[in-house]
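Replying to the earlier thread about multi-chain prediction with a worked example.

Input:
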Amino acid sequence: MDFRLTEEQRALRTTLRELLARHYPPHRLREAAAAARTPDANGAAGGEAGEPPTAPTSPATPGALSPATPGTPATPGTPATPGTPVTSVAPATLGAPVSLGTSVPLGASVAPGAPGAEVVDAECWRALGRAGFFAVLLPEASGGLGLGLPEAVLLFEEAGRALLPGPLVGTALAAGLVPGAAEGEAMVGALDARHPLLEYPGVCRAALVLDGATTRLLDTGELARCATPLDSLDPLTPLASLPGPLPARHPPGRPPGASRLRQEATLLTAALQLGSAARSVETAVAHARGRTQFGRPIGAFQAVQHLCAGMLERLEPARCAVYAAAVTGTAEESAAAKLLADEAAIHNARDCLQVHGGTGFTWESEVHLHLKRAWVRAAQWTTAQEAEELLAAELLTPETDWPRNS
Amino acid sequence: MDLAYSAEEEEFRARLRGWLRTALPGLPAPPDPHDWPARRAYDCGWQRMLYEAGYAGLHWPAEAGGQGATPTQHLIFLEETERAGAPYVGAGFVGLLHAGPTIAAEGTPEQRARWLPPILRGEQVWCQGFSEPDAGSDLAALRTRAVRDGEDYLVTGSKIWTSHAQIADWCELLVRTGTGHETPGGPDTSRHRGLSWLALPMDAPGVTVRPLRTLAGTTEFAEVFLDGVRIPASQRIGAENDGWRVTLVTLSFERGTAFAGEVVACRRVLREVARAARDNGRWDDPVLRRRLGRLAADLGALWRLIQWNVSEAQHTGGLPGTGGSVFKLCYSRARQELFEAAAEALGLAALDRNHRWTADRLSSLAYTIAAGTSQIQRNIVAERILGLPRGR
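Result:
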């Protein structure tokens, strides 16, 4: 047993950390937030006040905007068309090209004003694609990095630390399945039919839908018909709901695959949360060391010290849970990892906000962005309720070896 | 990130399992928990069995008579003995985990030859004389004084929270020998500088033991009064006035594996609680179910955290990191939550003090206090891990 990062894993993590520092430095996050529309009529750059965050695109140049850009034709109050057929994806077709519209360059594929266009950094996305971020799990024979889940969670932890916007999990899941996803040339969403919520709908060329044991694909047009924009709480995560019923038809002879993808999505999302939780500790500690009140750094007060220590108490077990789940790959450990990482991300952001005092309550601060993203991610994939029920049910099954030693 | 054990480690596990299968049926019946002499005999008998099978002092260095096992082998030992239902270290705790390793690290060859073999053979029991009524979390404030008298020290003062004092042969005693506050270099430095570590024979004239009853109704703790007790200076471990450093060596031997067996035991209890709730109908309550599911996640993560800390220790020569503080904070809270959830699952039966989980519910309350309160642990985490300014 040697439950530590290997030299190669450390190097991989460092490489991505440096790439993100170059392509997505912290000030970009604040700029994106400043540019995002706020409910405030006098808010900073962004849409007009009161305008729903829809993207009423009427592409003048179809080659550039359609059909790669779904837009969101459904206006608020108008239910999206249910029962839209979706493309089923069998493992046999995983490597085969799927028709998903034109191969418009990524940046140009995003309609101005489309939800997500203003927050997703296309240049950074391509840099990640070139680095193999989205292809980390794809076999080398298929052009991927051919690495394992432990490496994938380390990369996603870094992306979570930087709070990088964009459909990271969906695109990684779609690598090898949707052309351009692995290379960072296409953004792809993904969702569990139990939680019909899509992030970054305006920039997603397609969306994977994991419905029970079935993996389907909503193409650009279907996505446009199904998705109803939601005025997202998180300025950096535009959202759309896909009000049901989602298409239930699927060809016979369903291959497995959805459960593996769902588990990967759960774990990668947990890794994003882990990175965010770690970032909140660092931010809180840095502030507590630098901010002086009553003639001393506030970090010298035990009340503040114990808030910060409590953040580490959430972070370290969550970290070990996420890493271990990446090694064992069991459904139980993945669910537990998501449960603990969700809680660490949410409550560490809350405590980070508290340590920042009034500054933490401002739009300019980075703190609320971590909290809001953590709330969104907690609602995606395995939720706390699902994880706890799964783990509870497992307590009543005949015990296998515990702890599992492999 | 490798959770698989090596062939060598698996061989160690298999050999241990084989021995446990043959050895455990030979154990006598467990003693009445309130019969301290019987508990001592039982715990020492188990230690003797370990000694004869070559498992005594597993994590001690070989030159001290131990097995020189790696941290990972020690973890496997704790996991497998708990799984097999083997006895806990019990009365041997201080000797095997605190005093013995300290003597091994800091004692002279004569001192090691005198005290270590009887600990390993289960012949002598040690207790710990560190805390005092006015020196708990602030251990360096202790006032028990040792005055030099020729080749001896004359020791006067009192110690408290001394586990197993009434059945111990020896006490690892921390006393003030220095000039204390008058020493130049600032009061804080001098407080730590003037302490010494002595081996006190519990049958020496002037030693009085008064058992303390805990809120659980048990008497594993005692107060120890010292009235002019004569201790030869040859029974001092380390240099005079260097006892604080020697003590830190002692405390550092906990290594984050101290509760590994208990985490395995907690998982078993959690499954029993779930079955009890299913049988009495409370399983239908989603709030309770989710509470138990959450505990399953916590215990699983704690086990992985132990493996993380052990893997670190394996690469730092067996010395523990500060990660032990985070583990202790999380584990003590999880253990308390487990027995609170058990009480909810039991309903009115939880009010029966003879229920098997009642004693655990009560004793779990000590976990956030003993071996450094959670508040002291958070100070350590904040200052030594997170690098926040000292809070004084």
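Residues 41-112, 248-256 of chain A have pLDDT under 50 and may be disordered.

Feel free to reuse this layout for your own posts.
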